[in-house]
């Protein structure tokens, strides 16, 4: 599986921040707060690597409590979207979380990405809300 763990503070990590910035922040005219990034040492970072093109997608996993893992900032490079990379990243993150003993994955999905998560078995919980100035919904899935 071309999904591997990225260590915080490495050049690979910096590359994943750049990808997240390009895909998730720049289109909203926003940028990352360095103080927020500094706290990412506590997270699990996964990257999808293509043999020819390198890092094509990434996501973050943050522990919420002993049962629940939160997926954050799923980003696939624009030219690589629609090729199954996001799906592989999400499946790999579920496997990782289950391996670590978590039985629930949750996520704040952008409204535009809700169908993507529904296809992967995620269900909307509660009412829509605004995050980074755009509509989101909380979604979750029980892990086996
Ligand atoms: C949303 C995103 C992570 C999906 O990753 P991806 O690699 O493009 O998606 P995949 O190719 O793995 O798609 C898996 C399935 O979901 C579907 N899908 C993907 N994005 C979708 C969308 N926005 N709406 C509806 N269906 C979608 C695909 O058609 C595919 O369906 P299939 O299995 O029936 O063929 C990616 O497109 C992305 O980074 N988008 C911009 C940033 C973003 O919105 N991130 C999510 C923040 S919540």
Widest sheet: strand ordering:
1-2-3-4-5-7-6
**CATH fold-level topology:** Aminopeptidase
What structural category characterises the helix and strand content?
Answer: alpha+beta
Q: Mean pLDDT across all residues, rounded?
A: 96
Number of contiguous helices: 4
Question: What is the CATH C-level name?
Answer: Alpha Beta
- Give the SSE order as H and E letters: EHHEEEHEHEE
Strands, total number: 7
Named once each, the bound ligands are:
coenzyme A
Number of separate domains: 1
Strand content: 35-45%
Work out the helicity level. Answer: 25-40%
User: Could you say which overall geometry the principal axes of the C-alpha atoms support?
Assistant: globular
Radius of gyration from the CA trace?
A: 14 Å
Give the name of the CATH superfamily.
Gcn5-related N-acetyltransferase (GNAT)
Distance between the termini: 20 Å
CATH architectural type: 3-Layer(aba) Sandwich
Low-confidence stretches: none
